[in-house]
Amino acid sequence: MPNSINSMIPIGVRFMVLSAFGFALMSATVKHVSLHGIPVFEIVAARALVSLVISYLDVKRKGISVWGNNKPLLFARGAVGTMALMCVYYSVTTLPLAEATIFQYIHPVFTALLAVFFLKERIQSSTFICIALCLLGVYVMVWPEAGPDAEHALPMFSVMIAILGAFGSSIAYVIVRKLSQTEDSSVIIFYFPLVALPASILLIGDQFVMPDLYLTMMLVLVGVFTQIGQLGLTKAMQTQEAGKASAYSYVQIIFSVVLGIVFFGELPSAWTYLGGALIVTGALINVFGQHLKLPFIKR
Fold first, then answer.
1. Among the listed residues 196, 285, 284, 247, the one whose alpha carbon sits nearest the alpha carbon of residue 20
2. Where do the coiled-coil regions begin and end (predicted)?
3. pTM of the full predicted structure?
4. Can you give the pLDDT at residue 232?
């Protein structure tokens, strides 16, 4: 049975689920500390500091150089990732957790398309179906907010920032896929906080808020959860095609819905549950379509 499960659930998919759970916990913690008055750039800086220390120790543990081989592309990954991270954190702090996560997860569409043009990858039929169902699920979940009174329900600026963050994330994921051909995963991860820390410190300005012991611990957890998510993501992109791996990461939406209910009292509507069901269905087709011999999946 374990061997059967391992053959049906690729290692890259399992890493992506771990990544999704780590990032969901990260988002919930970011929202929590923001409600206690910690500004976004300070949260980014705290997360980057923790990740930088953990990443550096991990690289040294492996006995390899922290600087890698393709330095320009590594710095580009760090810069794009930093921009995307700031956008994501802003959306998490200004939108409900479920909605903020949904907007983040437009990125698999961008990733799959970018992978075709820049990585010359071929998108499988199951991935097309997954993306279609996931986008439909996103639409269903957002549709009640997209009516005539949408501007009163969700701040449009926050929505646009969230979409920008999703696009930035997709670029970063494709760069990771490219870097994985020549770089160790720990080095790729190390460059993210290496760029994010000085950038966020410069942007904090006079908005710095001295956290108490409890908030300091929460800020550390932001970095820890991020590291878990980042490690899972990097491993997933190394062992799975970019489009397929990123499509399955939609399960973070489900994690975020649960965390929103439990910790923030954000009760999803029936539309959220319907959209979530479509997203999960798409993810399952993406993973199991090749094995279940569905008639609409071309080999």
1. 247
2. none
3. 0.79
4. 84
